[in-house]
Amino acid sequence: MLKVEGLTKKYRNIVAVDNISFTLNRGDIAGLLGPNGAGKSTTIKTIVGLLRKNSGSITVGDHPHTSRDAKKKFTYVPEAPELYDMLTVWEHLQFIAYAYDVAGFEDKAERLLERFDLWDKKDKLAKELSKGMKQKVSICCGLLPEPLLYLFDEPMIGLDPKSIRETKLIFKELSAQQKTILVSTHLLDSIENLCGRVLVLKQGKIIVDMAMEEMKRKLGNSESVSLEELFLEVTRDE
Amino acid sequence: MNEFRLLARRDGWIMANYFLEIKHNPKRLGVYFLYLLWIGALVFNMVARYRNPTEIQAQLGSQIIGAGFTGLAAAFFLYSLYHSTLESSTFFTMGDLHLLFPTPVSPKKVLLYSMVKQSLSHIFLYSFFILALMPLILNITKVNLQHFPFLYLGFISLLLVVAPLNFLVFAIGSKYGLHRRLQQAVLALIAVFTLYLAWSIIASGDLWQGLLQGLNAPWLCYLPVIGWGKVVFMTAVTGYSAWSTIGLVLQFLFLAGCIILSYRTADDYYEDTLKATAQRALRRKQRAGIGKKRGFSPTFSRKNLSIPKMGSGPWAFLWRSKVEYSRSDFHPYLGFWALIFLLAGIAVGIFAAKGAGGLTAVYTTNGIIAYIIFFFSASNATQHELAKPYIFLIPASNLLKIVGSNLADILRMSANILALNIPLGILLKVPLPTIIIMIVFGVSFYILNLGANFLTRIIFRNTLDQKALYPLFLMLQVLLLLLPGAVVGGVLAFLFQNPALVFAGIAVVNIIIIGILLLLSNKLFARLEWT
Ligand SMILES: Nc1ncnc2c1ncn2[C@@H]1O[C@H](COP(=O)(O)OP(=O)(O)OP(=O)(O)O)[C@@H](O)[C@H]1O
Ligand SMILES: [Mg+2]
User: Fold this and answer.
1) Cβ contact (<8 Å) for B99 and A48?
2) Ligand 1 pocket, A41 CB below 6 A?
């Protein structure tokens, strides 16, 4: 579904993403982990096409990632959402629905808003929303088109417990529908039972890319080892 | 859905929401009414001032206006051309960046739509500039108000071209990796223009005469944007000819050309606009009174600084300012602006020493500086600090917090004013007391304006109000803070027949008001909120 090959991204002289390659297949939920500044957001933004890659290739379902065909296949939830101040919550969803040509979006949008407790806020302007509410609107915008690939950059930051649970549930449902998800996050325990696959970035390089089960087996051989411990173990400076 | 229709729909909703907001809160109409009044006053001023200068005056005046237009247009145009080799312009909001850019909508169409939209809206938005300039123009020369549309369009077309051209230049630079080449080309252009001006000054042997002749040279009119714009603009002054229409058509063809060429070249421009878009969002916030406004100064990105501790509590603010200024300027207190002030002081000093009006030059220069300070007053430390929680959190007396967070700015401004007045005093042999009065006047005026920022925050708590009621606030500021000093100064000067006393009077009253504000600082501080 998503194929990244030899991707390098520099900001002037800083190499933020250094020649990384990975492939996500249909139904994969991959957690993109790594310490602050590891290059997670840069990777995702480059896949989305907000940043230009310096080298490498990215394809989404065999289309080059900036092509229209590719863009129809994915949505993106940015790390700090910025909405249109003067549009209401509902109008945001409407806008996204038109942009992605979502058929019969009203029902879907209503269901999403209900799930995230935003239904009663649907006529509020974005500038009147709290930070967490904006984040939820942004997630709803990412979910509404029901694409094949979801690119989520720290989607659960600032959400209340119910919304976090809802998001996780939705991820599970999506995976069951053979959708592909790439989600960057620091909330390890919240994805521990969710992601089948873990990608750990450090200083722009992928240092771990394996199935969750395999990773657990490799490092602890026991059920009690948490993802947190694994993470600290693999990202520790020598 | 058709992509242009999608974008138009979005903008339709946004407009509708603005109207709804006004409907729910009709008080805001009052604000727009104030703006209308303001524009009305400007227009009235324009008509009321309308008089017929003598032919000779008008003749010289039209030359001055022509030269002024060309000079400013060229400076503005060349500067923005240079800027466009460093950074793209933007037509987008942060919302576009996060919601629109990732969608399958064609980037080219998004660009075309946004460029055209911005150009159309700017045709009206920039009208403030020209209306505000009109009294000045009318004072200098005769204007045929019948041809006012030409004057307006000549001016506007120049502003309109800049953003698309900037985008185009940067996009071409990114696409073909030409940024350095383009930069060299623009620098060469700037050099040529400067040399040309220098040559005309030397050839005529007189600074003003040379500038007037050089900038009014007929061949300049053939230059795109600057020259064409001038021809159109000057129609209202020198009369209509076929060239006016031709110039106007050429200007708009050029604009259309920039937009179409951008549309053809740019497809992968998203990254280029990220920085400019974020900066624009920040500026919007700053205009609404949140976040730091940065003055113009060259940036040095010194990473390793070691500024020693300067005391605890409120002095942490001073330390912070010092770090910031050390990083962004040559010296924390004697910065870029001190240099400019020094040069200005020397230049005015030399000029005035040649002519007659020594003291007048001192008064005028200091008056102009005060005016500039007043206009850019809604800025700096206070705003910056108030936008952050620390000033509310750090345990110290309010008075000390105010002093601590403003001291660096005050010291910097004092250095600037000294740098201006010392060369003036020496070159023009101004008596020492007068120079001291000037310095105290400038510094007290600056401090008063800093204090006024606190008051804005307190009077207009809502940041939206702050933005919308800005003209009203300026008026209030004039009434409360400037008028008393001016009255006292005026009376003193009249009684003792000494213009320096105007400044002395203002300085004394300023100091008294500052004292009162500081005495009340506890009360005022209690009313501040962190928003
Ligand atoms: N606009 C920029 N200009 C220059 N360097 C940048 C820019 N954005 C990010 N970087 C650098 O690129 C590297 C990767 O940043 P990125 O934002 O991708 O990290 P991240 O893994 O998302 O971190 P976090 O967990 O904090 O979100 C960092 O070293 C950062 O300093
Ligand atoms: Mg990040």
Assistant:
1) no
2) yes
Are A82 and B21 an interchain contact pair (Cβ–Cβ within 8 Å)?
no
What is the rounded average pLDDT of the residues B282-298? 55
ipTM computed for the complex: 0.88
The mean of the pLDDT values for chain B is 82
> pTM, whole model, 2 decimals?
0.79
Structural domains of chain A ordered from first start: 1-73+149-160+182-238 (3.40.50.300), 79-146 (no CATH)
**Binning pLDDT at 50, 70 and 90, where does residue B294 land?**
very low
Which residues are within 5 Å of ligand 2 (an ion), measured at CB? A 41, 79
Q: For residues B68 and B72, what is the distance between their CA atoms, to the nearest angstrom? A: 6
Alpha helix (H) residue ranges in B177-205: 179-204
Residue ranges for chain A with pLDDT beneath 70: 218-225, 238
pLDDT in tens, B80-104: 899 888 888 889 999 999 999 999 9
Pocket test for ligand 1, best of A8, A17, A41, A206 (most atoms within 8 A of CB): A41
Q: How far apart are CA B15 and CA A148, in angstroms?
A: 34
Secondary structure of chain A in the HEC alphabet?
CEEEEEEEEEECCEEEEEEEEEEECCCCEEEEECCCCCCHHHHHHHHHCCCCCCEEEEEECCEECCCHHHHCCEEEECCCCCCCCCCEHHHHHHHHHHHCCCCCHHHHHHHHHHHCCCHHHCCCEHHHCCHHHHHHHHHHHHHCCCCCEEEEECCCCCCCHHHHHHHHHHHHHHHHCCCEEEEECCCHHHHHCCCCEEEEEECCEEEEEEEHHHHHHHHCCCCCCCHHHHHHHHHCCC
The values of phi and psi at residue A203, to 5°, are: 45, 45
Give yes or no for residue A80 CB within 6 A of ligand 1: no
